Amino acid sequence: MDPLAELSRRGGVARTASLVSAGVSAHALRRAKEVGAVRRIRRGWVALPDADPLLVGAASRGIVLSCLTAAVRYGLWVPDARPIHVAARPNAARLAVPEGVVVHWAVPLVERDPDAVVDGILNTLSLVAACQPTETALVVWESALNRGAVDREQLEQFALSPAARELLGRARPYSDSGLETIFIFRLRWLRVAMVPQAWVLGHRVDVLIGERLVIQIDGASHTGAQRTRDIEHDARLMLRGYHVLRFSYEQVMERWPEVQAVVMEAVAQGRHRA
Length: 274
Fold this sequence. Notes:
There is one protein chain. This protein is 44% helix and 16% strand. The longest helix is centred in the last third of the chain and has 16 residues. It is of the alpha+beta class. It has three domains: 49 residues; 91 residues, no CATH class; 91 residues, VSR Endonuclease (Endonuclease, Chain A). It is elongated.
């Protein structure tokens, strides 16, 4: 078996023992190292020359990418993935990691595969719950539920931490974007019904407050035909007695007090009532 093909299939980084078990001969692997097609990064570990530096860095130190860093790799909505987060065995020796890297030493929720350089989704969510403020953690958890990376019944089977158990109680799989989660979380104190991804007049709206106040939140790349269709839908909503407030990514993430003030005024005026 071609060691380069097998390494590539495994993401460019792998244990030599796993490659040999998969059918790569020790001779082929040694020859690949000699010609520079494969490089040794740690005892028992090799990588392709162009392998992802984060994966190489994790494997070379005997750690895994985890928390927000792993969440990004799972395609979850993460407000800010900086800095890099990694996880180490609780009994691991002192690690030499670059300044600013966050190291998690907690016992994993699920035992880690010895071949893994990215933590499993369950361990990732567990560390997000322990590490991040509630708002950020809720965004990540709801994104995981929305994308089908995990399901509520699956999570309920584990001995979750109090923080993770609280998130599970709050998280809903309906928000299509982390912006919707953030919006609802920040306005939960209003104590009015807020439904993400509500179906109104043949289309989904980002958030429906009460019966008539529609909130639309444009993502950072909300342009083109999609935006045109949304504007057309806004007009139909308003002609049928709905009140539409549209906010941008920048407003929600950078100018929240302005957004909150507008929504508060609309609710005070009863725009959410039929």
